[in-house]
Design brief:
about 90 residues; alpha+beta; DNA primase DNAg catalytic core, N-terminal domain; two-stranded antiparallel ribbon; 5 strands; elongated
Length: about 90
């Protein structure tokens, strides 16, 4: 079952195993996942922050969207190890 990260990149077998198992248990089909554009917030404290930085976006820009938080040691992803719906504005 294919699953993508929130940026549209395919999630590797190991990282996405729990999400695929959860989708199977909940009877979420690949077609439904594609239709609803489900994505995976991987189980890492800075995956989204790092990807934003790679694309020359300020990590702090994720805070107003509710996707990251700032702590004394830097910025952290707010959502980890979760299936997420994409929101388009």
């Amino acid at each position: 079952m294919g699953i993508e990260s929130l940026d549209g990149e395919p999630v590797g077998r190991a990282k996405g195993a729990a999400a695929r198992a959860y989708m199977e248990k909940r009877k979420i089909t690949v077609e439904s996942a594609k239709t609803w554009q489900l994505g995976l917030a991987v189980d890492a404290w800075d995956d989204l922050v790092a990807k934003a930085t790679e694309q020359k976006a300020a990590a702090r820009s994720l805070i107003p969207a509710g996707l990251a938080v700032e702590k004394e040691r830097g910025y952290y992803d707010k959502f980890r190890n979760r299936l997420m719906f994409r929101l388009w504005m």
